Amino acid sequence: xxxxxxxPRLGQGMEAGTIVRWLKSxxxxxxxxxxxxxxxxxxxxxxxxxxxxxxxxxxxxxxxxVEVGRTIxxxxxxxxxxxxxxxxxxxxxxGGGPRKEERPEPRREAAATAPQQSEAVGGRVxxxxxxRRIARERGIxxxxxxxxxxxxxxxxxxxxxxxATGPPAAPARLAVESPPALMTESVEVQELSxxxxxxxxxxxxxxxxxxxxxxxxxxxxxxxxxxxxxxxLHGDGVKPTIxxxxxxxCAAALMRHRAVNALYTGEAIELHPSANVGIAVAxxxxxxxxxxxxxxxxxxxxxxxxxxxxxxxxxxxxLRQEDLDGGTFTISNLGMYGIERFVAVLNPPQSAILAVxxxxxxxxxxxxxxxxxxxxxxxxxxxxxxxxxxxxxxxLRDVKTFLEEPGLAL
Length: 410
Prior knowledge:
By secondary structure, this protein is an alpha+beta fold. The chain has helices at 129-138, 156-165, 171-176, 194-207, 221-234, 242-256, 300-315, 321-324, 389-404; strands spanning 3-6, 16-22, 29-30, 35-40, 45-49, 54-59, 64-67, 71-76, 116-117, 120-121, 124-125, 146-147, 211-219, 262-264, 269-271, 277-279, 281-283, 286-288, 291-292, 329-333, 352-366, 369-383. The longest helix has 16 residues, at 300-315.
């Protein structure tokens, strides 16, 4: 019996993905677990494995944006009849059932491929679920957005474009209101990549959260000495960094303050039993946050080994979706760039993120006498819907204590 292959949900909050290319053609035999197509999600482009074995009887969606749960292909035995609905699944807001006022639309001529103002069916604009959500967040009227999807359907990119450029102007006015060419230099226009669009959307969501920041300064003398000793012990292996030590320290503090190791879902607060720490990594034209799971159970050397592998895959564009899933807390370190302090933007649905500055020698009072000590500034950003000020302060105080006395966290 033929099996319908549906677009899977590969990450938390994923509502749609973009099929980049198929690795098999119609008529090819496919084994379960064999790479079937490449999918571009919010954060990575990855190969997706087949859910079934058999012959690829039909590719329902050759490429482009597809909502999660839509049938994209059928796998079965040679000669089986295949019948796949070409229309997108009904939005959940519609109750999943057909509306009486909807009627089949006549097929458009192939020449009519230019973007058009979106048409309403039964009083409702045709748009993907992701496009509807982005439009609702940006306050954009979907009826004023030109759809470039099948049959004029509005997709996420259309809404992003409308948010950046505003509603389309009338053609007659375009002819008379063209701005004069005042500059002779050409302007370089860089189209937003899928990653850049996702960063823009997620950071906009984060900016809407009621956050607060807490700052503290830690003496890094003993932490630096411990890191140097660990480097000596591990010889030619992966050399632990201050970030690896900080990850271990934060994991220990998170186990004491689980309210910080939490996700805010809008309907509830999820308190997680394990410290899955995300490390912000800069990549060409973007930023990703791969996750080191179970940091409270790992040694600093083990954290360093996992971190090195994640960073290498991130910078070579080979991250897997599982590398990005499950994070409960994030560390963003700009100390290597000489930044002394900064405020990191929340990484929803996580409830907190720690911004780490550089280690700087400063003159401070030690036993009433001036002394030069290596100091590092830490800034914690918290979502006040999940974390209270006192809770965040206690967590940050413990991080400082563990950095100044690393043995307490090991």
